[in-house]
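Posting this for the archive.
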Amino acid sequence: MTLIVQKFGGTSVGTPERIRRVAGRIVRERAGGRDVVVVVSAMGDTTDDLLELAAAVSPEPRRRHPRELDMLLTAGERIAMSLVAMAVRDAGVEAISLTGSQAAIITDDSHTGAHIEEVKATRVREELARGRVVIVAGFQGVSRRREVTTLGRGGSDTTAVALAAALGAERCDIYTDVDGVYTADPRRVAGARRIERIDYAEMVELATSGAQVMHPRAVEIGARFAVPIRVRSSFRGDDDAGTLITRIERMEPIEGMALTGLASEPGHARLTLRGLPATMAATTRALERFAATRVSLDMVAPVDRADGARRDLQLTLKEEALAEAERAARELVGELGGEGYDVKRGLTRVAVVGSGMHDRPGVYALEFQALERTGVSVHALSSSGITIRVLVDAAQEDAALRALHDAFGLGEMAR
């Protein structure tokens, strides 16, 4: 008998009525002759509510014990898993709920952001052999020291794909409140179209760049273990195809360009250290200081002055890290004899994702022409193998997305 893993997000199980609807979908899948393992997130805003409770009891984040926070937050998924199991049983199919530790999802020792080291899933296999649907709490696991851990943002997606890999599932279906992956956010770009099939690497880039349909960690596991992932809406019929994330062998010409879509992420800033010595030693010391203060940098661009003696170091980062970054900047300017530093807040990172861009002349020109015509200014730029990212003013995010979507013809290229 083949096996399907289904994951239902918080919106999908947000009310008793929705839980019963989810149970009906699970039962229909089981009736099709497949074993079914289900992963659930906490209901609706449960996790946010629990975080608010923690803040009310322990107002200072730095003093809030991460172990106890994990113990608290895992309660949300345990509530959801038991209710879904009840609904499935009421619909006439045997079901059992398991926590992350009962399902033997083994993680490292990090609290609030653990990584999965192994999925033993012995109990899951035993329950499947008994003819039961197994409902597993997402977002959580257990360390080898028998401590309960949580997996951080996107943890339930990660749980589902990791279980699918460990169990040799035919596919992992991710049910959410959208009906697939689009060429751009359809709430912002009217011409955005649903993508029928997308390669793992492109999906990782979109997710990393701000597309919130899937978490990149989950997609990376899917790619590593060749688990097809289908993103579907839990509010549409069983025949809705959604988007299939899989490995795609390209048929386009070698010199062709196959664009996939756009993604954006607000909350970025640019920090410029002015007048540093134009030496590798000074630049390395600056980067080491930011690393030591655990400030994650996105784009790094050294810009040498005309005289060759001084350098401006442009760095981009999340706005939430600015306080620590500015402290480090003040220290570095003093220690290295720099002139000062500037900060530009309120930026959004916009990414164009697709293969073949870096072998095709004129891609950067096309992008900048589209943005210039729309009156959008670019404050920083970076690129990887299949992605070009620019920072724009947050107020111009929608205009930038629409301009690039039209310029690259993404509405017509969806697949």
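The radius of gyration is 24 Å. The chain has two domains: 3-177, 261-413.
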